[in-house]
């Protein structure tokens, strides 16, 4: 059940991150969910490294959104046309 909950929260975080960040994104359902899940994982590991979260504790919805926005920004930097 934890995995299903993570996917649902990840999808919602990906949708909110895409809505907040400017620009046009051509992501479908699966890429949006993957973006949110990756953002949640990124926020969890960074939060644990900085001792904001205890081991085994997840970042939560706001952390997942912030992580997804960071991933969107990194993707933009890497795919920017010169």
Automatic annotation (TrEMBL):
Cellular location(s): Cell membrane
Record's keyword terms, sorted: Cell membrane, Membrane, Transmembrane, Transmembrane helix
Membrane topology: Multi-pass membrane protein
Ranges annotated as spanning the membrane: 27-47, 59-78
GO CC annotation, single: plasma membrane
Pfam families in the cross-refs: Transgly_assoc
Keyword Membrane: yes
Transferase as UniProt keyword: no
PANTHER family per the UniProt record, alphabetical: BSL8023 PROTEIN (PTHR33884:SF7), UPF0410 PROTEIN YMGE (PTHR33884)
Family: Belongs to the UPF0410 family.
The protein's name in its UniProt record: GlsB/YeaQ/YmgE family stress response membrane protein
Organism, scientific name: Dyella telluris
